[in-house]
Amino acid sequence: MQPTQTLKIAIVDDSMFMRRMVRSAVKECFPAAELLEYGDGQAAIEQLPAESPDLILLDLLMPRLNGQDTLAQLRALGVKSPIIVVTADVQQSVRDRVRELGAQGFIQKPITYEKLKTVLGEVMSS
């Protein structure tokens, strides 16, 4: 994916503050990106399949439907978009589980431009 290409990127996080931080980092990487934001996993699974985003940035710890269940349901619904998990949980078992569920990347919070750029480069080139 070329940096000049307009991307549609979904941010799924229950924290408005974290969505704002992620939005800021994404805009540094892709100033022209179209951003979609969802405050919980349930809203994401109800709307994302129709949106066909180029990338999904997904928090794990959310009410209603956590990130692991959201990830599993998005994949079950046929969503093929690359999914990068953005979380404060650093346990290797969690990383392994979300990769098994179909996540292509993992960013530890707090998110920064440098972390996002590195993981996006890895995901978009694979």
Automatic annotation (TrEMBL):
Pfam family, one: Response_reg
Keywords: Phosphoprotein
Lineage: Bacteria, Pseudomonadati, Verrucomicrobiota, Opitutia, Opitutales
Name of the molecule in the record: Response regulator
PROSITE patterns assigned: RESPONSE_REGULATORY
Organism name: Actomonas aquatica
Record domain Response regulatory: where: 8-124
Modified residues (4-aspartylphosphate): D59
